[in-house]
Amino acid sequence: MDPLTDAPPLAMSCGDPSGVGPEIAVKAWDTLRAALPFCWIGDPRHLPAGTPAALIDSPAQAVAASADALPVLTHAFAHLAAPGQPTPGNAAGVVAVIDRAVALAQSGAVAGVVTCPIHKKALHDGAGFAFPGHTEYLAHLAGVERVVMMLACDALRVVPVTIHIALDRVADALTPDLLAQTIRITHAGLIRDFGLAAPRLAVAGLNPHAGEGGAMGRAEIDLISPVLDALRAEGMTISGPHSADTMFHAPARARYDAAICMYHDQALIPIKTIDFAGGVNVTLGLPFVRTSPDHGTAYDIAGQGMADPSSLIAALRMARGMADARQEASA
Description:
Elements: E1 10-13, H1 21-32, E2 38-42, E3 53-55, H2 62-65, E4 70-74, H3 91-107, E5 113-115, H4 120-127, H5 134-142, E6 148-153, E7 156-160, H6 170-173, H7 176-194, E8 200-204, H8 219-233, E9 237-242, H9 250-253, E10 258-261, H10 264-274, E11 280-284, E12 290-293, H11 310-330
Helix pairs in contact: 3-4, 7-8
C-alpha cells in the first residue's frame, strides 16, 4: 500500500477555536504537508489570517490537497472566536466537530482522530457538556465502558491507573479490578497499536520505596502484587511493583515498553520532564485511533503566533503509526 495514495488521511478536530488549536493546526500542516495528510474539521473563519486553506467535500480529497493548502472540512460555528476568550455560543460546535470526526473514523473514511485541545468549563457552560474531558466523551461515543490514557514520547510511555482525582482519594479508588483492566487494555493496545508482539510492562508501587516490605504501607503486598501475579500467570511480561523513584532513568526505561503508574503525577512528572513539548496523549481501548497534544487551550498565548506545534505534530505522527500498525495487523 502506498500511504499517500491508498491510506485514508487522519481527521483533526478543531478543539476550542478561542485557544491555540487553529494556529498549531496550521503550523503542523505547514511542517508535514503531503508527507502526512490530514483534514482539519472546523470553521475556516477561525484559522489565522492568510492561511492557505482548501475547502474539501470528503476526507479522501485531503491527500491531494495537502501539498499546497490545509485541507478543511467546513463545519460552520455560530460565532467568530476571539483568541483567549471562551465563547459559550461556540461550545455546541466544538462538540459537534468531535462527533463528526469520530463518525468519520468509525466509517473508515479517516484512519484516526487527532483532537485539538478543548476547554471543559467552556463546554459545560455553553453546551452542558457533562464529561470530565475528551477521553471520557470519546469512550461514550464509541460505546466502550473503560479506556486507558497513555502519555507517550520517543523515550517513554506511561499510563496512570487513577487520573484526575485528589491525591487523598487514590488509595480508595485503586482496586484490583481497575488495576487489572488498566494493564490488560495497555497490553492489548501496545500489541494492536504499536506492533509490539510481547510488551514488557513495569508497574510502580503506590507508596514510597514500593512500601518497603510493608513498613511504608501494604498496598503493594495486599493489592498490587496479587494482580501482577495473576496476569503473569496468563503469560504477560510484567515487573514490579517497583519503587517509582527508580523507574525513569535511562537504563531502567530500556527494560520496559510502558510504565504503569498508580496516580496522575507519578506518571506525568517523568514524561513531562523528559519531553515537555513532544508528549502525546493516546487513548487505548477505543475501536478507532485517537491521539492529542499533551497540553491545553493556552488561552494566555492564543492568537499571538507563539504556540509550539511540536506536541500536535508528534500526535499526528503517532496516530499515523498506530493506524498503520492496525492495518498491518488486520492484513
